Amino acid sequence: MSRIGKKPVAIPAGVTASMADGVITMKGPKGELTMPTVPDITYELTDGEVAVRPANSTRRARAFWGMQRTLVQNLVVGVTEGFTKTLNITGVGYRANVQGSNLKLQLGYSHDVDFAIPDGIEIKTPDQTTIHISGSDRQKVGQVAAEIRRWRKPEPYKGKGIKYAGEFIFRKEGKKK
What we know:
The chain contains three helices and 13 strands. By secondary structure, it is α+β, with helices and mostly antiparallel strands. The strands form four sheets. It has a four-stranded antiparallel beta sheet with strand order 11-12-7-13, with helices on one face. The longest helix is centred in the middle third of the chain and has 22 residues, at about 60-80. It is elongated.
């Protein structure tokens, strides 16, 4: 029995939900998001909430139940508040700034890295060592953050690189003389 799946997802005022042809659509102030439905799960749109239930008693249906409810919740949060990830850059000469529709990264390579900002994603650089990534689709925001981080992962000796805000890098001692 899924404890998360039992709770219906509340739809706040200003958000409209619809379901047609196996696709759930949420429209709100931050845009429109869609999600395909799973045949093992039933979705019930009632006044002001979406109830997610397993369609049968198979193991697969029970396994998908809580996850599908969370994905519906992410649609609601995405169209109302949106999602944000923050990256911090550490290292001498490492910096980032937004130029038009590109994020320009200087990460100690012989060349600058130009990262094209995808549609639906907004990137801000309040200073040269902080990157704020925001958007309505949680998966897309996380994917963009991971792709930017991949250019220079934090290393364990000096901690240089791109890391998530709040991420702890376990530092190694290095060689002793």
